[in-house]
Amino acid sequence: MAKLTTRTEDYSKWYNELVVKANLAENSGVRGCMVIKPYGYAIWEKLQAELDKKFKETGHQNAYFPLFVPKSLFEAEEKNAEGFAKECAVVTHYRLKNDPDNKGKLIVDPDAKLEEELIVRPTSEAIIWSTYKNWIQSYRDLPILINQWANVVRWEMRTRLFLRTTEFLWQEGHTAHETKEEAVAEAKQMQEVYTEVVENFMAIPVVKGYKTPSERFAGADDTYTIEALMQDGKALQAGTSHFLGQNFAKAFDVKFVNKEGKQEYVWATSWGVSTRLMGALIMTHSDDLGLVLPPKIAPIQVVVVPIYKTAEQLEEIRQVVGKFSSELKAKGITIKFDDDEKYKPGWKFAEYELKGIPVRIAIGPKDLEKGQVEIARRDTLEKQFVALDEVSDKVETLLEEIQTNLYQRAFDYRKDHTTEITTYDEFKDVLENKGGFISALWDGTEETEEAIKNETKGTIRCIPMAFEIPTEGVDFYSGKPAKFRVLYAKAY
Amino acid sequence: MAKLTTRTEDYSKWYNELVVKANLAENSGVRGCMVIKPYGYAIWEKLQAELDKKFKETGHQNAYFPLFVPKSLFEAEEKNAEGFAKECAVVTHYRLKNDPDNKGKLIVDPDAKLEEELIVRPTSEAIIWSTYKNWIQSYRDLPILINQWANVVRWEMRTRLFLRTTEFLWQEGHTAHETKEEAVAEAKQMQEVYTEVVENFMAIPVVKGYKTPSERFAGADDTYTIEALMQDGKALQAGTSHFLGQNFAKAFDVKFVNKEGKQEYVWATSWGVSTRLMGALIMTHSDDLGLVLPPKIAPIQVVVVPIYKTAEQLEEIRQVVGKFSSELKAKGITIKFDDDEKYKPGWKFAEYELKGIPVRIAIGPKDLEKGQVEIARRDTLEKQFVALDEVSDKVETLLEEIQTNLYQRAFDYRKDHTTEITTYDEFKDVLENKGGFISALWDGTEETEEAIKNETKGTIRCIPMAFEIPTEGVDFYSGKPAKFRVLYAKAY
């Protein structure tokens, strides 16, 4: 098995090689669209299940809305339409016919032109709010708390596996409320849910913050974001939750009779995370040997590789493994016994390192004699011998340790790569040479934000919720009085 | 709550009303596309989970392939292309722009025309086999056993909620094998898996059979089907599994080196069930009061309606219910306590009948005195009083009884509506007046099949696997020697 390009050699190349070789995803024959391969999809399924559980615990129900948005609905909310019009797939015809000039080939049938074009959803606010209009008459119909698992399409010009693809998978929550306060609380609650899952389940520390107006979702009054820091010092927006105000209610004329008997526009939120999180997972924990998975999200948490020469030895190993294996299964731990004869142990070791299995157990004839196994942890690559009757407890503890260690490692990296600056020279130096988050004062103007972005590619990732509004100090770029302390970074 | 149109008045109207009023689905603003509402989606999720479990138990893994099929791939397998070309959504552009003549409106940007049109997948053989080509070199790469949960689009002219919609949700399995025998065995295995889930989980009896050549999937060498009979005497194809031969391997040039070192084309299957099964579920069990759900697929299996006048009474009821409720939950039974004050018990009774909740428990002050509850079963509408300490065991037994009874009821209906005929007059009489399956001899020719279809709308649903090949007898229509005993019916 050829080794991966190392991260220091070429981070971007390392990423692509890892994604393909670890069987996570690959590019397809369709421009910008990926194939999510079984191993990648198994990780995504575990993440889906965890998110779905949290959504249901917070009172949401799943539903499904159409893939297509008729153009007249698409354009109804002007800012939203403007935000997505430049990158949308448009269905114009509903039939192909035989090409009269070219046997065996098909052409678009000009007689099957749609009266109104259909946009393949880049996001579903338009289709959903045109539906909610019929569902909402009175305050009794509120709140509506719905989530949808779906595919969406945004015609991106430069694509990267998981990070930016023309089609991607996501969930999108769309809620409707009586009051502004309730909608804001919902949007913040979902930011909190995302934080919990991304931090506790994926072991990725995030910064919770507000997006600046220029970085908000098209059609939102406020966007709450969680921002993660990748190993190469670039930031990645891991999830967003939007307070949509009454923008969609007004665009689709969705009113309700309130408790006082008066007509009011409905308040809205929407929130989503996508297969992009797979990219964040990879770029937070992995190393030059391949993927490193936090145990909670790993489809296989423990792999056992038997080392043997004879069928008798294998049988003996199988019996010994069977005992702790069923103990581990009883604890809810996923374990695989790999007795595939097509590959040698060394090949398997490398393969499971590439695939990021958190714990690997090796056991051979000598171990049998000594009544032990060798346990290797993927995060630190440390190995130790463990007595057979202690394997089950040891592995359980180790999985918890790995989960904690991966989070802590990423947290420490972020801490080391968050730099407070006061001058533009410092800013450029850190952005170019060290990377990471740059904590700085901002005057709150789009001009400053835009100028810095154009000059350096550094963008304001968020106004962290944990930061106090500064009472004094000046913007490091404009010299004007500061309004916010923000985090800048180059971003995916 | 207005009552449903009855089934005898207008079966089709009853169906549509039930689907909408029970919050299963509704038509959307997009032609032919439905919105699957939360309650309908919750049922679909339970079915998905059951199917997914069975797929994994039989060695399959999930993956995800692109929504779009470039035209050149779409047309590669000729029969498949021919079968779907007439009803496919075609993406021709990737951008909208502002309409210069109409402020606030958008038009398709003619400068953003795709070089090659993209078809929204009606099924994924083409995109998947163009991918498998890169995954398969040797027999060591086989079998590939993959399933995908996805949305697909077929431009149907006449649509019905769940039964026939432009966009629908489904799963599609796509497998690749070394030998013909292995592929045939896989296709039959999946027909068996579908049978198990549809019969045991959905309580819908099915006939397993082969499709006639004219009814096969476009591109298949053989299609195995499961056929169900609806309450109105019409048949419904509930799931199909296809032996695809080497058709797609040849179209996409997918060869492998076999164990003898020789190049061979790969053998294939595909198989799918869709949200159409929701229609089968509704039309198998429901009645004039609404949906009737088999307990195994019901998102809520038991509902408790408290009857009270004072807060003290409600509190007392809550305590009594709490006890058997936690016993039921411990048994894995889903139970809802409905203390919503906005609605009266009578309204709730009707609502839960409409929604098909298998068991309803009512409890009021008199019941408290007597230490009992009233239990009503949805399938027979029978009620009985049960002592409080027997509720948990009684409900558990009752749920099993309801599941069995619903299957048996549907089975008996089908038995009563399967008629063997020997003359065309009998055939037409049964088809028009009694409905159901018609068992008859067929000469095996497409001419006979086609003529009967055109004259009567009766089609051959399948050649049941349970039927022996007849050694004598003649086709009731053509008088020619019979080749098969088949089942005819009008079909959804």
TrEMBL record, chains A, B:
GO terms for molecular function: ATP binding; proline-tRNA ligase activity. PANTHER family: BIFUNCTIONAL GLUTAMATE_PROLINE--TRNA LIGASE (PTHR43382:SF2), PROLYL-TRNA SYNTHETASE (PTHR43382). It is an enzyme of class 6 (ligase). SMART domains: ProRS-C_1 (SM00946). Its EC number is 6.1.1.15. PROSITE patterns: AA_TRNA_LIGASE_II (PS50862). It holds the Pfam family HGTP_anticodon. Residues 26-294 form the Aminoacyl-transfer RNA synthetases class-II family profile domain. Its main location: cytoplasm. One of its GO terms (cellular component) is aminoacyl-tRNA synthetase multienzyme complex. The gene is proS. This is Proline--tRNA ligase. It is found in: Cytoplasm.
